[in-house]
Amino acid sequence: MSGPPQLDTALVAALADFAAHDRVLVATDFDGVLAPLVVDPMDSRPVEGGMPALASLADLPGTTVALVSGRALDPLRELSGAALDGPLVLIGSHGAEDSRAEGGLALDDDQQALLSTLDDELGTLREEHPGLRVEDKPAGRVVHTRGLPEDEAQAALDAARELGARHTSLEVTPGKGVVELAAAHVGKGVALVALADEVGAEAVFYAGDDLTDEHGFEALADDADADRAARRLTVHVGDGETQARFRVADEQAMVALLQALLDARRAATAR
Ligand SMILES: [Mg+2]
Fold it and tell me: Is residue 1 in some structural domain?
């Protein structure tokens, strides 16, 4: 009989320490952490148990819960199932969008012009690499190559990166099978620390699987609040090098982790 994935004992101890603080921020990436990566990004679905555990955490005292994603806010809300007026904070477009802000984000005329030039150039790129997907985001475009043959995907990613590099005001962010080209960019690290400051968190949990999440792990390690930096609980999902303190294998293990965190936080806040 296979039970839920077993968590590392050091991680379980760290979760208990984290849960004991009065005010905590529990933040996590969505794709590759709560939902398996899929060929079409709009086919993404959260694994069972992850979102309910986050919602239960958000109901506990002194506990702010946030999804921090590269996705635009609307698809993030739709795919995660997080309620519009629910307790979860949704941060989209790598920090450029916040579910609590009114009207989303504003681009200036130069940024709007840059996006329309980018659309023309990406149209040409798509003719050269059929099967390439381009996702529209409020402040940028994301080129997806998942599902393409490997050498074709690499050539398309390289071309997208070069295209992005020609526009110096674009922020070019490579990921797994994606390149994001953003006219306005905040970054997950900046967004995480700003949210932690805003809610007065004494400790921050963050889990992610991709290169952009490494910026989050680094920013939390370099937090100007040195006590909070020392208390950070960062978790990388999957293989590969990481700055995170802990690692879990996959989305199922992440659900087990969130359940353990919920149990620890319930025990700590009941005292
Ligand atoms: Mg991810």
Answer: no
CATH number at residue 96: 3.40.50.1000
97 and 205 share one domain = yes
Residue 133 identity (one-letter amino acid):
R
What is the 271 CA–ligand 1 centroid distance (Å)? 35
Determine the structural domain holding residue 39 and report its residue range. Answer: 9-103+186-270
- For 150-197, the DSSP string reads HHHHHHHHHHHHHHHHTSTTSEEEEETTEEEEESS---HHHHHHHHHH
pTM: 0.80
Separation of CA 226 and ligand 1 centre (Å):
27
Same-domain pairing of 169 and 249: no
| 3 domain-assigned | no
Give 109 Cα–ligand 1 centroid separation in angstroms.
Answer: 31
Tokens read off for 43: 């086919």
| Dist. CA 69 → ligand 1 center (Å) | 7
pLDDT in tens, 190-246: 899 999 999 999 999 999 999 999 999 999 999 999 999 999 999 999 999 999 999
